[in-house]
Description:
Protein name: ATP/GTP-binding protein
Strand order of the largest sheet: 3-4-2-5-1-6-7-8
Domain CobQ/CobB/MinD/ParA nucleotide binding: 7-277
Radius of gyration: 27 Å
Helix content: 40-55%
Distance between the termini: 19 Å
Oligomer: single chain
Shape: globular
Structural class: alpha/beta
Largest sheet: 8 strands, mixed
Number of strands: 15
Domain CATRA-Associated Small Protein: 455-532
Number of helices: 21
Pfam family, one: CbiA
Amino acid sequence: MTGTVVTFYSYKGGVGRSFTLANVAVLLARWGYRVLTIDWDLEAPGLHHYYGPLMSKAPKGGVIDLAADFLTGAAEPRQHAIRLALPEQGTVSLLAAGKQDVSYTGRVQDIDWEDLYRRGFAAFLERCRAEWTENYDFVLIDSRTGISDIGGICTAHLPDRLVVLFTANQQSVEGVVNIAQRADAARDRMPYDRPPHLVLPVLSRLDNRVEYERAEGWQHRCAELTAPLYRNWLAKSVTQEQMLRHTTVPYVSYWSFGEHLPVTEELTPSADQISYALESIAAVIAQQFDRTALFADNRDAYVAAARTQRQSYRLDLLVSISRPEPPIATELINELVDLKLQVERSVSTDPEFFDHGSDPAKHLCLVIDGEVSRWQATEAERFLRHALDADSDRRLFCVLTRRTDPEKLPAFLRNLRLFRLDANTRPRQVARQLHEVIIDAPAGRTDSGHVALQDAAAALRKVPVELSREGRWAIVEQTVIDMATALDDNDMALLKELTADLDLLNEVRVTGSRVTTPDGLREHIDALLARIDRRITVFTD
């Protein structure tokens, strides 16, 4: 599959464009994508500063050498990119602006881009582009600010997508909207087959911790000004303001000093951390600006989908064991290893567990002895957040010892397939059952979540227009509210129970006096149906 070229552009400097690109590249690589970053901000190159600790040597060439290659008659571009040494798996390469020596400034000033294009440089760049997109999944270009010849190359000629960054002021916002529209007009005049841009607006360096009301007002204003940029890709059920809020990069003073990669430190970021927003931007790029209805409904599910599309796992199964460790758990692990599965144990209170941004194992198995420990519950919730993608075939299993009562499990675990270790079922038997599910089950999600959503939608559509008593409507309304809460919590077991309750209420025949649907209830039902239908669409996409 051909890679995608994405240009990061800002009309003004100081908006965090290079910072955002550098961090997004590391995230995409962590998620399994091959990434090439290109520093085309020749007058003020900066990507090599962000990647300095990851470079084994300084770049000896770069973008300015592409012009030299062309002028010397090279048929194909020479190799000027260097691969970065990431602290984890993944591929990020850097095509720097050029070798940073005393001759650099003069070489940049000597380049006449207009003359190069008259000589046929556009065709040479097309060959460069073809090579880049063949070797990489994403090519991220850091463009110069303002209006320039270089800006036209980066915004009109090369990219498939644009990410435009701006701060909360009129000239910054209007500048990126104007450039995006000019770039589309320029593409129409090009001899190459380029569809209209898909443009992601990113409000950057927004400080809403002190001047909250002013920040809110500017977010709303920026959403209105950038609305034209969303029209050809944002789902109709999602507002521009919703999307802009999800992708707003906050101002965090700690990261304003120097050139840093917070995504290498904030591996599981919370909503108030800067890496949370960077993950959202990376996910939109990884998802090719698609499936945005899921993004608005469940941001974590959307990011999880992007994270797992290309992810590989070191282990087949991670077995979570509470303390004190039951001896039968060790027997189970040994049996799984004998069956040629890649298995490791995760013992409660292991301090290194949350220090890793990616999961080591495709599947997670909780060995529950008596009750679920707080650590196991945290592990399971973290696993489910990472495995929320409906197309994923990742599984969470529960193995219960004889001391464990299934009815006392947390609701989000009760609807899973449960395996028992007791006098009649030994570790070898359970290991074989797990092996069969892990190895032999067809790819794709096979848990009951999809069915629960379909049943809930069917029950909601069957809610009658009239019932015999007003009191029954109160019960229906509360059930609908509870179903919405269960969906918020991703509690499929509770959603199943409430769906069964609603089915019973729907079957009550109307006799005697009739009471029509109360004001507002039908709107609640329609809104919940729309949310469920979006989830079902994700399952079947």
